[in-house]
Amino acid sequence: MKSKNTLIPARLKPGDKVGIAAPASPFDMENYNLGVHVLESMGLCVSVLDDIFDKNTYLAGPDVNRAKLLNKLFADSSIKAIICARGGYGSIRILPLLDYNIIRNNPKIFVGFSDVSAILSAIYTKCGLVTFHGPMVTTMADASQKTKESMMAAFLSGSKLNITIKNGIALRHGSASGIVSGGNLATLCHLAGTPFQPSFKDHILFLEDRGEAAYKIDRMLTQMKMAGCFDGIAGLVLGFFEDCGKIKEVFSVVDNIFKDDDIPILAGLEAGHGRNNITIPFGITATLDSDRNLLSFHEVATS
Prior knowledge:
CATH topology of the largest domain: Rossmann fold
Strand order of the largest sheet: 6-14-13-8-9-10-11-7
CATH architecture of the largest domain: 3-Layer(aba) Sandwich
């Protein structure tokens, strides 16, 4: 079920050089340095350009500079993967400034989450490149062993990923297959009505968020539904909804929004803003089985 236009990034090897991008907010240097140390302890060579340390109020430098850095990292053949330093806010601002031809012609691992979901979505939509929803440099500072092992399995292993959602909650029973994509709900919602609006037709959609009350989650899902983002969706899997109030209220909102869709819905995937942050490849096909608490990918995420 892989699209003929899907680009699979090359698999990482110990000693490979990874570049750090800062497409959104500035970051805490202590957590940054600790995160770099963790990546190096995992056998990776970290390459850093001084531009990532710029600050422009709540942004890590001017839009054009943040986009230029990301384009440069993709164009550099010595860089085998790109890991974002932090989310926060700002990724959406650089989407029109990214050179999608450079990205398409230099496919490589790109990973981030939260605000970086905007870039994950845009790269997949515009280029067909498999991207990765996973931890960033600053979150690697105190990452759990499960988080680190998941990232390495996604980037270094030649095996198909099978994600068992140990404490999964089936909001809607069944199974379905589709290309996995998604990310942070608030970020994806703000792509609606733009040239980068995602479509999840025939997709297994992953969603997570943090610090959003149930009525705000309702509002965002309603907007995306009315914009047609969910038309023909194959399945839905929910990650962490940290500090979003009572989780049963969130589940009730989700159940209501998708009440007319005959799809499996499974909650409890340990990904997003939580202690564990499992790495999820976006852009390849998987089967979601909400009765078996399983998200099983049909192919490897790297080549």
